[in-house]
Input
Amino acid sequence: MKNLLHWLLLAVAVLLTGCDDDDALRLACDGQEIKITDIYDGVPGDPFTVEALEVTDRCLTVRVSQQGCSAENWTMDLITTGEFAGTSPTSTHATLYLDDQVEDAESNCTVQSSASFTFNLSPYLQDEVLPTRFTVHGGASYAVDSVLVIE
Output
């Protein structure tokens, strides 16, 4: 009986000291981190179309497309000033920038290429600012905004 009580107490202790589900989900996002800077106007970027945006916990996945030869060398940044509006829920915004690694004069392909990029929002979206309305700017002529609610 005494051994049963020891095993039961050990099992409870292990359950209480482990990661909770939220921590496990946050650790699972291996995307690049959002870049926080005071000024990001004028950052060069190539035109693209946002095909899909999805947030799972604090992991943002972006699928984009563009007319070009290949998406193999594309890079994408997600840049923000780091400011939050004190509304309820809070709100913030960031801009996507694509670099297709091709000079404009070199681009003569007409194939539609696509790629997916993942961003870890955990360092930026701390618990005290959640829930938040997260507006993502970017896309064709940077005129398309997507608003995601992150809890």
